[in-house]
Amino acid sequence: MKTKYFKTGILVTLPLIIFVWLIIKIKKMLFGVSDEIISILPEKNLPDNVLLLEILIIIGISLVIYLIGYLYSHYYIGKSLRSVSQKIISKIPVLSVFYRVARQIEETLSKKNSFKEVVLIEFPVPGVYSIGFITGENNRYFEEALGESVVSIFIPTTPNPTNGFLALVTKNKIIRTKISISNAIEYIISMGTINIELDNNLII
Length: 204
Known about the structure:
alpha+beta; 16% strand
């Protein structure tokens, strides 16, 4: 029995397995919610066919989710709903922290087009390398002041890449890479736990 056929079989069937697993999880979650709703209803109001009632509740939940998505997508209504929901979430201690982090990550990902290239530079001390993003190479004023060619580099912090440092670095001090902006941001957010073969992608 050749292992390569088994590996190929896993690769082919894995997406289907994940899809079925998600459907089962969603089904359990929806039926769990419907069971909770039924449990608080008076027994005298329950119909003989409880399964039919569960299905109707699930359809109702799906319609509510669809309606929320539709309203949030509406320009004026969605804007008002987001404003109200943000104010409510910001007042809930634990939830507000997760929401703030999610928003910061979303803002960083939305601004990734302003990053031109992923590089490595020695920062904060010689011999220690940090990931940076080239944000601009037209620094004529600073180049005249310094007497040499420099590049603007944003050095993000981890796990919140929306904060960081702006550095002007001479071109000969930059180690350019072939890493994509998205992969670099994911690597920073994960605090280096995601496996990226940095050494194989470097162009020195």
